[in-house]
Amino acid sequence: MHRAGIAFLLLALLLTGCSQSVDILWDSTKLDPECATFPPAAGAERALAEHEEAVRAIENVHPGYIWVDLDTVTCPGRAQVVISYDTEANRARIERLIGGDTLFGIPYRMVNR
C-alpha cells in the first residue's frame, strides 16, 4: 500500500474512533446521554443547593482545578452533573467521595480538562 493509502486508512480510523480516542487520551467519561434518566433541571439544581457542602468537598480536592456544574443544555428541561477535573489521581479521589453512579440521585459524567 502506498503512502496515500496508508494516510487515508489512518484518517478513516481516526475519524471513526475520534470520540473513543478522546475519552482514552483525556480520561473523560463518554457523553452518551439517556435523557429519560436525567431528573428535571429544577430538581437537580435544588439537590445541588441542598448538598452545597458535599459539592464544595469535591471541588476542594484541588481548589481552582475541579468544578461541579449542571448540564441543562444536552437534554433541555433535564440535567446531569458534569465534574471537570485535572488529573487521574484527583478523578479517583472524587469517585471515592461520590461512591456511586449518581451524585445525590443525579447522573454525572467526568471530564478531564
Describe the model.
- This protein has 113 residues and is an alpha+beta fold.
- The chain has two domains: 1-29; 31-112, no CATH class.
- 46% of the residues lie in helices and 18% in strands.
- The protein is built from five helices and four strands, in the order ααααββαββ.
- The chain has helices spanning 3-16, 18-26, 41-50, 52-59, 88-98; strands spanning 67-71, 80-85, 102-103, 106-112.
- A four-stranded mixed beta sheet has the order 1-2-4-3.
- The longest helix is centred in the N-terminal third of the chain and has 14 residues, at 3-16.
- It is globular, with a radius of gyration of 17 Å.
- Residues 13-26 have low confidence and may be disordered.
The chain-level structural class is alpha+beta
* Shape, principal axes of CA atoms: globular
What is the total tally of β strands? Answer: 4
Main β-sheet description: 4 strands, mixed
Give the % helix. 40-55%
Keywords:
4-stranded mixed sheet, globular, alpha+beta, single chain, 4 strands, 2 domains, 113 residues
Compact description:
The chain has helices at residues 3-16, 18-26, 41-50, 52-59, 88-98, and strands at residues 67-71, 80-85, 102-103, 106-112. The chain is an alpha+beta fold and 113 residues long.
Layout of secondary structure:
Elements: H1 3-16, H2 18-26, H3 41-50, H4 52-59, E1 67-71, E2 80-85, H5 88-98, E3 102-103, E4 106-112
